[in-house]
Amino acid sequence: MKIALKGMPRRSFLITLGIAFLMLFALRLKAFWRPFIVSPRKGNRPPSRPNAFKTEDRASVGIVHGRDPERMVREAFDLIGGIEKLDLLGKVILLKPNIVSGALSPATTNPRLIGAVAKILFESGARRVLVGDMSAFIKLPTRKNMENSFIKMMVEETGAELVPFDEADWVSVDLPQGQYVKKVFVTEVLYQVDRIINLPVIKTHRSATYSVALKNFVGATHFQTVFSML
């Protein structure tokens, strides 16, 4: 006995439905499975630069209060010695906000802050400004989250460029001196820019109590890094 849906046998309908779900799953989680079937290229550790904002042997910190992100960013830079120390003329800059999901700030980085920093960078001579991150596995795709959190709109208004890491390729980097992690997979975007500016959010975290700047760069590593630890 066949149960038909508009003339389609039950078995054919279930097969078609299963294929449709698999296609939807594959497209949504492309960022997850892609490096498993396309090997990331081998690379060295991304280049690093010494901290330009230091007083003697200590990092300089500027703390500013207010409600105007642009004014606050300018003042914060002035407090630690000026944005000129970054030597931005003709450079490509990556802004790394926290876009863990499509939730609004403060779950994600305030889009007004991103826009303010991008504007100041262009004024200081930056050739291109990229805004990139990869959302949590269960919250992908990142581009949709950039749109829902109004980050996409702000980035486009400033003339900067969106670079969702889950749409880019990945680089495999060996860490021979690592105690727990011997290999890490990082976004290729880190190799395509001259400067990286971290724009994290200070917020509570179920495992670490709160998270600040270092954890923000989890978004620049691929989930496959976890499997390399096993």
Structure write-up:
The structure is a single chain. The chain is an alpha/beta fold. It has two domains: 1-38; 42-51 and 88-228. The protein is 31% helix and 17% strand. The chain is built from seven helices and eleven strands. It has helices at 10-28, 30-37, 69-79, 111-123, 142-148, 151-158, 224-228, and strands at residues 41-43, 54-55, 58-59, 92-97, 128-131, 161-162, 170-174, 183-187, 195-199, 203-205, 209-211. The strands form four sheets. A four-stranded parallel beta sheet has the order 6-5-4-9, with helices on one face. It has a three-stranded mixed beta sheet with strand order 1-7-8. Helix 3 (69-79) packs across helix 4 and helix 4 (111-123) runs parallel beside helix 6 (151-158). The longest helix has 19 residues, at 10-28. The termini are far apart.
List keywords for this structure.
230 residues; alpha/beta; 2 domains; 3-stranded mixed sheet; 11 strands; 31% helix; globular; disordered N terminus
Helicity, in percent? 25-40%
Q: How many separate structural domains?
A: 2
Structural class given helices, strands, pairing? alpha/beta
Could you give the order of the helices and strands? HHEEEHEHEHHEEEEEEH
Distance between the termini: 49 Å
Mean pLDDT: 85
Q: What general form does the structure show?
A: globular
Tell me the major beta sheet: 4 strands, parallel
**Approximate strand percentage:** 15-25%
Radius of gyration: 21 Å
Strand order of the largest sheet: 6-5-4-9
Number of strands: 11
Runs with pLDDT <50, length 5+? 1-5
Number of helices: 7
